[in-house]
Amino acid sequence: MALDGRHALVTGSSRGIGRGIALALAESGVKVAIHYFQNEAAAKETLAQVRKRGSDGVLIQADVTRPEQITEMFRKLKREFGTLDIFVSNARPEAPTFYAPPLDITLEQWDTAFDSQAKAFLVAVWEALPLMSDGGRIFAITYAEGSRTGGLQPWVGMGSAKAALESLVRYIAVAVAKRGITVNAISPGWTEDSVLNTLPDQVQQLIRNWHERGWTPMGRLGTPTDVGDVVTLFCSEKARWITGQVIYADGGASLMNPEVPPEIQIE
């Protein structure tokens, strides 16, 4: 899919799902601003991979939990690109900064989750829209399962923040619809080279086995490339009539019945 000449900003794109999105866009001819918080070496590697795919980009550092740094990030983006066609809000802080059950989570951890998601998205959209022509594309990366369930107790901060993010996507989609700008949330399932790989080895293996046994009907976990391809698909002009939606990109995992063992659901 050719998107030649367009410009994108993908937050948290030095590694993981963000990198997968940046590289998929680069393969379609998009110039990409690679955002990172602390890992400059990883961001440089992503930019090198973007260039190997025949595109180009820039590095932009910012802490997205701080609105003034988001504003400065877009100032630099304007100096480098001048315009913006695609904005992907993907950045998420490291798990220890928010990962605690509801009766133990601190207000600092709670604020970190919300500041990095709904607040960061709102401020970024404010800054992105003046740079974006009609027909632009805005995405928020969410985890919809975590925003509507309560079993994974230490996810309460991020799950609540993602729920707020998904709601905000709908409101902004309506606000910018007359400009032909679409706003959607993409919800990956468990994905390799992501937060999964920060978990203890035993936990990682349990999750992989569970999905390979059938909890994901396609029999595997997702990859950053899978998610990047979905974002690229929705950048197409043919996706212009889809906005304000949560798009599940999870190989069918969200279709499964949590009350029934996967062996019974899939033969």
Description:
With 267 residues, the protein is an alpha/beta fold. The protein has a single domain, classed as Rossmann fold. The protein is built from 9 helices and 7 strands. The protein has helices at residues 16-27, 40-52, 67-81, 107-128, 144-148, 156-176, 201-215, 224-234, 262-265; strands spanning 7-10, 31-36, 57-61, 84-89, 132-141, 182-188, 246-249. Helix 3 (67-81) runs parallel beside helix 4. The longest helix has 22 residues, at 107-128.
SSE arrangement:
Elements lengths: L6 E4 L5 H12 L3 E6 L3 H13 L4 E5 L5 H15 L2 E6 L17 H22 L3 E10 L2 H5 L7 H21 L5 E7 L12 H15 L8 H11 L11 E4 L12 H4 L2
Helix pairs in contact: 1-2, 1-8, 3-4, 4-6
Tags for this entry?
Rossmann fold, 9 helices, about 270 residues, 7-stranded parallel β-sheet, alpha/beta
| Tally of domains | 1
What does the largest sheet look like?
A: 7 strands, parallel
Fraction of residues in helix: 40-55%
Spatial ordering of strands, largest sheet: 3-2-1-4-5-6-7
What is the H-and-E element order? EHEHEHEHEHHEHHEH
Q: Tell me the total number of β-strands.
A: 7
CA radius of gyration: 18 Å
CATH level 1 class label: Alpha Beta
Structural class: alpha/beta
Q: What gross morphology would you assign?
A: globular
What portion of the residues fall into strands of 2 or more residues? 15-25%
The CATH level-2 architecture is identified as 3-Layer(aba) Sandwich
